[in-house]
Amino acid sequence: MLSLQVVVFLLSVSEVISQCPPSSGIYLRHNGNCYTNGSYFWDETVNAANEAISCVLPGTNLTTGQCVRVADPDDPVDCNSNSASDPFRCTNVTSPDATINLYLAQGIPAAQEGWYKCCLPTNCSDPNTNIIFANIFRFAEIESFTVTDLPSDMTIHPQEYKLNCTKIGHYGYDISMSIGSTALASYTNCNDDSNTNPCSGTVLVSSTNTVRYTVNITWDGMTVSSGSISQSITGDQVYQCVVEVTDQPTRTRNVTIKVPATAPSSLTEVNKTATTITVSWIALDSSDADGYVVNVTSDTDTVQTVQVEGSSNNTITLNGLRELTTYSITVRAYQQLLGPASTISVQTLPGI
To answer: May I ask which residue range the UniProt record assigns to the signal sequence (predicted)?
Structure first.
């Protein structure tokens, strides 16, 4: 049985570990803090031996550990020569914790920024080694772009959630979040070093200019809106965050929210009594729906809303209704959010 311990989560935020150092497992350490797999490090903060990124495996002796650029695994960092052609310098600690300390001689060239993996206590060709990833970048990067507060209760409509884009690195930049060609938020000439910064981000870590920008989104099943900005959309919602520093490569990150593209078809009355109505529809494929939400209204009042789990469940009996009353019945499929609606009107029978 192989004991390979690899956790590849390359789009994660640089999360500081509360227990530092942890009692077990490979981890990263920088400026006295411990970091998880997939963390980001600005090259300006690792430009000296006392600013090194340390890759540590507690309780293990170092044998042939190494750091390798993911895009060029055949050119590992050479800790023995520290040659002028290699921007990295490193030192090793053999025991009691296998450690490689990695730092830069004078910043990192554009061609060599990006993801690096550290392998301990043996080199990366050993299938039993332990691996952790770090992103070392120039100027600015998007540390994470995530969706938060997605609704768990699908019966609430309209739906609300947040987009969070976290930028790290250079103090001067532009940042925007959009869906399609519609900008939901756009900030220019941001300056994290200025007390009059025109941009409304939340500072997470001042030493690395780590700033989170948030957009509040409302979704009604047809239109995405944020404040006075709105955009009609069908199907999955693909959002984009862009960070730009003058004369530097543009950083872009996308995030997708799964949304049914079509309404349940052939919504039909199956049966009714004075107090019940049974309706059915053609179920969507499991790849297009996780379930359905059925909403019942009379005039303008919502009588009941029911969440039906499972894409194959396509029939429901609605109870507790009034006789000789016309109800509007709406069915929507859902995944992470609600999709478009099918609606029919049905009148209950007279009571006996």
So the answer is: 1-18
